[in-house]
Prior knowledge:
Distance between the termini: 23 Å
Strand order of the largest sheet: 3-2-1-4-5-6
CATH class of the largest domain: Alpha Beta
Helix content: 40-55%
Strand content: 5-15%
Largest sheet: 6 strands, parallel
Order of helices and strands: EHHHHHEHEHEHEEH
Shape: globular
Number of strands: 6
Structural class: alpha/beta
Radius of gyration: 18 Å
CATH superfamily of the largest domain: HAD superfamily/HAD-like
Number of helices: 9
CATH architecture of the largest domain: 3-Layer(aba) Sandwich
Amino acid sequence: MNINLSNIQAIIFDLDGVILDSMSSHTAAWSTAFDEFDLQVEKDFILRHEGALDRDLLKRLFALNRQQVKPELFDKIYSRQREIYSRQYAVDVSVFPEAARLVNRLGQNGIRRALVTSSRREVLSPNLWNWLTDSFSPLVTGDQVNRFKPHPEPYMKALDELGLQPQEALVVENAPAGIASAKAAGISCIALTTTLPAKELFDADVVLEDHAALSMFFKREGVIEPELAGTASA
């Protein structure tokens, strides 16, 4: 393990697959959108490139499959994916209960909590958005940056708004693009296998199974204090 938590003042979380149990919904919406445009894209490809599906990536994908796709077509696919997700799936997406408890415990222990996501605010339900704004500050969404993960801009923006140096923060991610973004910004990264197996997350500093393992890790490293007897566990 190559990670130093002694100076950590903030934990920066990814949203989909880390805070929200939403990746199956996003993947289904992407698959439907691609199908409507007669484009075949494997589910594993969508999961591996969570948060990084953009024009350049899709252009390379289609070129490998000898498909000629005009760049502007991606904008139509992306718009359709957001529409499908918002109409069919967003209302049923919920926060991982273990993630909610952990976020609360971090706050009780004086650790700041921020959020960085490629999702746009428009796809989040009002109730969910209200919970997020109560629980995280800042919230960096996809419509606030010019370059998406794996570019470091999203996490650099979070650091700037937090007023922290890279060594004073820690990122929790679940996808290769997010890990690459965090590392390029100079921030240590823990990855959870909530979406992909550990072998896909090898660039993270630490790979853990789930939120329960993450809570235990934080307790062991002194980031959060163990609960007193009789209190609810994180």
